[in-house]
Amino acid sequence: MLTLLLFHRVIKWIIRLILAFVAISLLWVVAYRFINPPTTALMSSRSDTYDIECSQEWVDYENIGSNIKMAVICGEDQRFKEHHGFDFKAIQKAIEHNMGGGKVRGASTISQQTAKNVFLWEGRSWVRKGLEVWFTALIELLWGKERILEVYLNIIEFGPSETLLTTAQTLRAEGSETKTAKIAPVFGVEAAAQYYFNTPCNNLTKPQAAKLASILPCPSSCGMSSPFAYKHRNFILRCMRKWGKSLLL
Would you identify the CATH topology of the domain 54-247? Predict the structure, then answer.
């Protein structure tokens, strides 16, 4: 009898915790539908690592140029306008590729990346992946595509490469402060456009936008001049020229 009573109490507490989590996450997502996220776990991590505040400047959706929107969608999630948060065709292809061996390929959509970056932490685990699914479904339902893309373009990391950041950090530690300024990790399309091309994001040309989008898969490990970025840039440009406009919202 005592065991049964304890079991019922445990179940009640589990249900209460689940309901509390659902309520808090719903309020959190609804709040960010109207309030721009002030920071993310990744931004905080980069700031702590390099002891400098990340470079970011929020830009509203209508003030983000079509070229960078097009380039990012072409490079990251060509079915963004069609799917409801999860690209099951891409997931199936990734599973088949990964089962065949070789480098592991992911299939995260822009919606999933936004949910992960805004609400969760770095790392890989089944718990985090499950929460990613939950938050992805919520933002698809409560935000809509334009808000998802707006937030994504404003919080995604654009480098500079970890090698450059570490080199500058080492030179400063060796007493070269007069020669080497602190380099702030760059987040969002406006800060990236200003950092790499000294221009607002709504003035980016197609080649410039493709260059920025080409480093998104590995912003801290590959620079714009890397072989991967060069190959990916050419792919993005071909996509933009062939059907890029049809992918825009």
Answer: Penicillin binding protein transpeptidase fold (1.10.3810)
